[in-house]
Design brief:
heterodimer, A: about 280 residues, mainly alpha, 12 helices, about 75% helix, flat, B: about 250 residues, alpha/beta, six-stranded mixed beta sheet, 9 helices, about 25% strand
């Protein structure tokens, strides 16, 4: 009798699944408690609020970047961080797609170029790359095209992030394309589609669906690494924090608020990602 | 008699050091149904895949409707649009509905507009008996239904030739008949068909000729009746005794 009822309870059927204690996301409770506590401090404590206001970016000016409508609402520091993250991710995706295709190309030259680029980027620390790309490579390219003086620090920062993450995302795209069974290409080609049509209409839609979680993780990674552009004196969240702590000497308030801001964004994104993955898994059952 | 629609001349195919196909010569006329049988690894699927250039022959030539496939100047996509192929694993596009599976190549390759492609697709889905599944995704269909959508997908291109690569081998027994019925219908309508299968009932009912292959070679070509009742070679006899013993 007991055995029977136990096995029935274990069966994950139509009833609402009960979360067992060892699966309960305690980590999330702790992180939300931290975020809640920080929000409380920002709302009630004068020192925290001042730090928050400065980092958030209600003070200071932005060189080379004219954000108009948005910054009034969400602040210049945050606007800069989001702008760099979104544009960096956008260009990194484009680079990643084409380099990923190059990696699996039958053309030896394309394959060699793609592999060299990826291995080069992967072999050098991100901080070193930020300097090298923004201060050496981008100026060299700009000089070549005769637009040396018109490349702002923000553009250099975006270019550097896009080139770095393009290499990592190329491997994601390659894996995604290779995850689509060979039969799909064969079916498409046997219907008379060109290799471009097959890639564009049959393989890539399936590949991108398969790599959505990995792309989301890369987006979060770029959001975090966008803090490195502070090295180029771009006034993102991290730079704002550096400036504020430097002048006020309130290191504790400054860096706790900065941590709070990044964590609030990354946790939100990663929860959305988990939800999406779950939905896909249910759909495909 | 007119020129054969498929001409295979001195076909050889190596995979690395392994010779999959040896010296195959075969002519197939318009409207003929040719069934290729043989033990697994005998090269029959490879021959089929060479006919629409999914495999590139190591040596030899194939002509489809007089067009030389191995000629560098041949637009292979044009030829493939005339040669439908049905796979063992169906290979439906999982991100598209049944209807979209049947329309996508019409739109991209035949350049038909949406209304025309949809109409042709519905007609083909009706022909294979599942018009009510037009909006279903492949994962919502049974194996037999998926294979019938795959056949409709090829037929919508209005091909001159249909190739079938073990179309029922991945199906549960109760679904084999629904797919074979569609193929029998097609044969009756005069479609030129090359079929690799183990379904001897189909071969007998629809096959004009049977080709028995073993170890990459064509061993014997005969009508189904003759092949069953009067096999010439010992290898054919041995193979038939194995598959017909039950």
């Amino acid at each position: 009798m007991t055995v029977q009822s136990d096995s029935l309870e274990d069966a994950p059927l139509t009833s609402t699944p009960k979360i067992r204690p060892d699966q309960f996301p305690f980590w999330l409770v702790i992180i939300i408690a931290f975020l809640g506590g920080m929000a409380y401090l920002v709302f009630t404590g004068e020192e925290y609020r001042q730090a928050f206001d400065f980092i958030w970016g209600n003070f200071g000016t932005l060189e080379g970047f004219e954000a108009q409508g948005l910054e009034g609402i969400i602040g210049r520091g945050l606007t800069m961080t989001l702008y760099i993250t979104l544009t960096g991710f956008f260009f990194a995706s484009i680079i990643g797609l084409f380099v990923g295709l190059g990696r699996i190309s039958r053309n030896l030259v394309l394959r060699t170029l793609a592999t060299t680029y990826i291995e080069f980027i992967r072999g050098v620390p991100t901080v070193v790359l930020i300097f090298t790309l923004a201060l050496v490579v981008v100026p060299a390219v700009a000089t070549f095209f005769g637009v040396e003086n018109s490349v702002s620090n923000v553009s250099r920062a975006i270019a550097a992030l896009a080139i770095i993450y393009g290499a990592y995302m190329a491997e994601v795209f390659r894996a995604g394309i290779e995850s689509v069974p060979r039969g799909q290409t064969e079916a498409a080609r046997s219907l008379g589609m060109t290799s471009y049509q097959a890639m564009r209409n049959i393989i890539l839609p399936q590949a991108i669906r398969n790599i959505m979680p990995a792309l989301g993780n890369d987006f979060i990674a770029i959001l975090k690494d966008s803090s490195l552009v502070t090295l180029l004196a771009v006034r993102d969240l991290t730079q704002q924090a550096k400036l504020y702590s430097g002048s006020s000497f309130r290191f504790r308030e400054t860096y706790l608020v900065l941590t709070f801001l990044y964590l609030a964004m990354t946790i939100t994104l990663s929860l959305i990602l988990r939800w999406y993955e779950n939905r896909i898994r249910i759909e495909e059952r | 008699m007119s020129e054969p629609i498929i001409q295979i001349r001195d076909l050889h195919k190596y995979f690395g050091d392994i010779q999959a196909v040896k010296r195959v010569d075969l002519d197939i006329s318009q409207g003929e149904v040719v069934v290729i049988v043989g033990p697994s690894g005998s090269g029959k699927s490879t021959v089929l895949r060479c006919i629409n250039h999914l495999e590139v022959p190591t040596r030899g030539s194939i002509f489809i409707d007089g067009v030389h496939l191995e000629d560098k100047k041949t637009d292979i996509n044009k030829v493939r649009a005339e040669v439908g192929m049905v796979f063992q694993q169906f290979n439906l596009f999982p991100h598209l509905t049944a209807l979209e599976n049947v329309t996508i190549a019409q739109r991209l390759v035949r350049r038909r507009d949406k209304a025309e492609a949809d109409a042709i697709a519905m007609a083909q889905l009706t022909r294979v008996g599942i018009p009510e599944k037009a909006d279903a995704y492949p994962r919502q269909l049974s194996g037999g239904q998926q294979q019938r959508v795959a056949i409709a997908r090829s037929l919508a291109m209005r091909p001159k030739i249909m190739l079938f690569d073990e179309p029922t081998s991945a199906l549960d027994p109760e679904m084999i008949k629904e797919v074979l019925d569609v193929m029998l219908d097609l044969a009756k309508d005069g479609m030129t068909m090359v079929v690799v299968t183990h379904e001897m009932g189909f071969a007998r009912a629809a096959g004009d000729r049977m080709v028995f292959m073993d170890e990459g070679e064509v061993v014997e070509i005969a009508t189904p009746e003759d092949l069953y009742s009067n096999p010439q070679s010992d290898r054919t006899k041995l193979f038939l005794s194995k598959i017909l013993s039950h």
